[in-house]
Amino acid sequence: MVSLCQAYSSTWATPVLLAKRVFSLASSPFGHKISRHYSSFRAFNSASTSVCLDSKELRSTDLVDLEYAELNLKYKISEEVGHVRIRQHVNPLSSSFSKPAPVPAWDEVYKDPSLPLMVDIGSGSGRFLLWLAKKNIDSRNYLGLEIRQKLVKRANFWVNELRLSNIHFIFANAMVSFEQLISSYPGPLEFVSILCPDPHFKKRHQKRRVVQKPLVNSIVQNLIPGGKIFVQSDVLEVAQDMRDQLDEESNVLQHMESVDTEEGWLIENPMGIRTEREIHAEFEGARIYRRLYQKLELTT
Ligand SMILES: C[S@@+](CC[C@H](N)C(=O)[O-])C[C@H]1O[C@@H](n2cnc3c(N)ncnc32)[C@H](O)[C@@H]1O
């Protein structure tokens, strides 16, 4: 039998494609788990560097590295910020996160601050947004809002490394800072994503969930007509909560039925790349519940 290493070494596929191929072998989205043990696997990126997973158990972190291989990022940027350990969820309602983040000088963070903006709320490591920014250098600006300062510091380090002038990360509690930051942006707000937000399972902690009425109102108000909101979660209850809150705005927002759905949830991630949490969750066999909304065009 041809090993995965041999099978792929003669092809000129992108690491993303390869990661998806490996992923589809490793698990299925609806709970089937297949053996994750591979004798050999090698992926080539366009610069001819390679990632080889030889004779070891495939972990979801390997899949994340593969999916984002073309960014070629180094992890340890200083003693302080290296492989950032993710603590349990932070409490966004604590007084330490109550101060609004300062509004940056937009013309200092973006080459062209008049471009349409995509905001990712709870951007985590930032790699998802970095990948998109690299693909759309001249057409869109990207802003990540993240409540963990070390992740923001490392993400902005990566922005500089990749020499991208259309992306920036801000250490901010989105519940407190979204309105002030986004209403000051000179260009149009075209896209907002909230992907796998912290679930805060306990009933008494649900008010810590990032999607709350004031944030929804602010997103809807700032979004241009035709602009989109993409939300997803691997926790059904959290996805339903976000869906219910966005569905309440049905006078201005409509769920995009033109994309393939199953039981009202989008089957595919429409962004062309999965987030890190999404990769980990799918690897464990979880289903991802997604909704994509569009703000209605103004009628005269
Ligand atoms: C489960 S992670 C998901 C990260 C990324 N979106 C993904 O799908 O891989 C949720 C992220 O949201 C951040 N977060 C939680 N509450 C937040 C808030 N109020 N404002 C900004 N970021 C927040 C967390 O620190 C964490 O990085």
Automatic annotation (TrEMBL):
<keyword id="KW-0808">Transferase</keyword>
<dbReference type="Pfam" id="PF02390">
    <property type="entry name" value="Methyltransf_4"/>
</dbReference>
<dbReference type="InterPro" id="IPR029063">
    <property type="entry name" value="SAM-dependent_MTases_sf"/>
</dbReference>
<dbReference type="InterPro" id="IPR003358">
    <property type="entry name" value="tRNA_(Gua-N-7)_MeTrfase_Trmb"/>
</dbReference>
<dbReference type="GO" id="GO:0043527">
    <property type="term" value="C:tRNA methyltransferase complex"/>
</dbReference>
<keyword id="KW-0489">Methyltransferase</keyword>
<dbReference type="GO" id="GO:0008176">
    <property type="term" value="F:tRNA (guanine(46)-N7)-methyltransferase activity"/>
</dbReference>
<keyword id="KW-0949">S-adenosyl-L-methionine</keyword>
<keyword id="KW-0819">tRNA processing</keyword>
<protein>
    <recommendedName>
        <fullName>tRNA (guanine(46)-N(7))-methyltransferase</fullName>
        <ecNumber>2.1.1.33</ecNumber>
    </recommendedName>
</protein>
